[in-house]
Amino acid sequence: MRSPFLAALSLPEIRWAALATVLFAVGAVAQLAGAPDVVWWSLYLACYAAGGWEPALAGLQALRAKTLDVDLLMIVAALVAASIGQIFEGALLIVIFATSGALEAFATRRTEDSVNALLTLAPERAVRLSESGDEENVDAGTLVVGDLVLVRPGERVGADGEILDGVSELDQASITGEPLPVTKGPGDEVFAGTLNGAGALRVRVHRAAADTVIARIVAMVEEASSTKAKTQLFIEKIEQRYSVGVVVSTLALFTIPLVFGAEFEPTLLRAMTFMIVASPCAVVLATMPPLLATIANAGRHGVLVKSAVALEELSKVDLVAFDKTGTLTQGTPRVASVVTFGDTSESELLRAAAAAERRSEHPVGRAIVAAARERSIEFPEPDEFTSTPGRGVDATVEGRSVTIGAPGPLLPTDEGRAHAVVAELERSGHTAVVVLVDERVVGIVALTDRVRDGAQAAVRSLTELTGNEAVLLTGDNQAAAERLAHSVGITRVEAQLLPADKVTAVERLRMSGHQVLLIGDGVNDAPAMAAAHVGVAMGRNGSDLALETSDVVLVRDDLAALPKTIDLSRRAHRVVKANLVIAGTVITVLVAWDIFWTLPLPLGVAGHEGSTIIVALNGLRLLRKSAWQKAGTGAVTAKASSSQVETHRGA
Q: How many whole angstroms separate alpha carbon 125 and alpha carbon 143?
């Protein structure tokens, strides 16, 4: 691994700034030592060239686009200083200005490094198996859904997929954050970029290269790095007008005294000093470095904030609403029992239900399919398949219609025995799913789920952090929802909600004056995420729609990271405010000093550019590991014990 020093030197901005600094230092020594003027003038001019060519080019390009850039103001000021013999002061301005630009480039690179680290995880090549078993070494990017790949011991998995054959331990720390390798076997999901252990695996690809977990993470981080917060957009909007105002004021400060007989050189020096100290360099750097640093730090810890705008909204959150299944629970329910009616056997019911759910991505559907496979029940492909979020699935299996879903909308009122079974299952801590064949109730499947580790601690932390009790919004039945809510410390529960009802609930919370964050994982959560101020998706098993709709993704499904991220975003917001105060105060003091008294040019340069460096460094503090470790330290950190709770199709 490269040292931080070598990593920094890889940036051209830092190399040029370092060269300019060295040339300035040598020139200053030569000047103090009494060397010929041509020697130290040459060194200072070389410093101008090394540290000033990039901002000069950027300023000229901006001028060509009919905009005035602060870079150009600094270069003009440095050149004018040299023209009146103040070469030392001009070189000092170049050095400090180049150093502040290097710091900004360093902050941006740290964010980009989080993307590059992920890109290196995914292997470039993979071994694809033909139907006859022949091996072919191919580009991993060409793998498509349905391809069969071989993963040998010690290799990285080439694509997201499902293990068909083989058992091995996989190191998934880069994706899920799990510290120890996880044993995987037939039927288990594996992710591209994870490291295989000692066993050979045959994997069926179920996501194209562009849709893998790693690819989605990379796209999200790149998108976040390219966005700008509302504060930054406002600053950039007024920067152009402000810069024009500085130029006009500088010309006025130069020409008006000359009209009244002032001396040329002192007047020009005062005007150049004014242009330097009034320029908004520190203001421009006040916003993005802390926000980018926070996004990068959160990304290193498995939290992807998609944009600077989302980070700004996250800092204002004062109420958190949770989905249930897959969010507060592990989202991997299992079939606990099957109750059949009439002459339908358990095997027949599971065969029909598994066939109908075969194409479903919902945890309930996967649990039913897994139960059929565990019992070695073979089931066909459905002829037709339709999934309705919050209700269930409808399919045609071997010419018969099969419907599976929540009892509420599906169970006829005259099915007294079925209603009694559902009520008993819900009282005993299970979730009931009704199965209808040709519109006749043939049975009920009972499922269980477990509370996610750390859910109770996360709820407590968020309650302390926001000052408001968390809310549970779920499609599950009231009894199951309240039982789960009680186990994690939530008392505000809204249950039996369809997706549209969740949206209504979120809008009601917003109308009551709250800045609402909703966290979920399913297709049925996406509309409510869009309605909330901030939508958070669970990254490991979250649906594609939820991941795309959300503003933040918990890649490792670690709920404990959410209060830390909110706390860090608030700290970033405070740093932005502090930076703006620092920058504004320094500019005001230096401008007043230059207008009403006599501000020495070196002191003006040091004060103005020094404030720029302070602002940049203040933002970069949020990159440190300690910033993440300290985030949310005031919240409760004890882990909640796992318990058996219900899951439900609509949750």
A: 10
Residue 421: phi and psi, rounded to 5, are -65, -45
Instruction: Please tell me what DSSP assigns to residue 180.
Output: S
Q: Residues 541, 557: contact at Cβ < 8 Å?
A: yes
Return d(Cα 212, Cα 193) in angstroms, integer. 10
Catalytic residue among 160, 323, 476, 594: 323
Q: Which tens digits make up the pLDDT trace of 461-503?
A: 999 999 999 999 987 778 778 888 888 999 999 988 877 788 8
Residue 113 falls in the annotated catalytic set: no
Question: Tell me: the pLDDT tens digits for 163-211?
Answer: 888 888 887 655 554 445 777 888 888 877 778 888 889 899 887 776 6
DSSP string over 529-596:
HHHSSEEEEETTT--HHHHHH-SEEETT--TTHHHHHHHHHHHHHHHHHHHHHHHHHHHHHHHHHHHH
The two three-digit tokens of residue 55, written as one number: 């901002």
Is it the case that residue 610 has pLDDT exceeding 50?
yes
Could you give the CA distance from residue 503 to residue 313 in angstroms, rounded to a whole number?
A: 19
Total residues belonging to the chain: 651
Q: Is a pLDDT exceeding 90 seen at residue 566? A: yes
pTM of the model: 0.63
List, as own/partner pairs, every contact residues 627-631 make where C-beta atoms lie below 8 angstroms and the sequence separation is at least 24, other chains included. 627/297, 627/568, 627/571, 628/297, 628/298, 628/300, 628/301, 628/564, 628/568, 631/563, 631/564, 631/565, 631/567, 631/568, 631/571
The span from the CA of 492 to the CA of 319, in Å, is 12
Tokens of 301: 């810890």
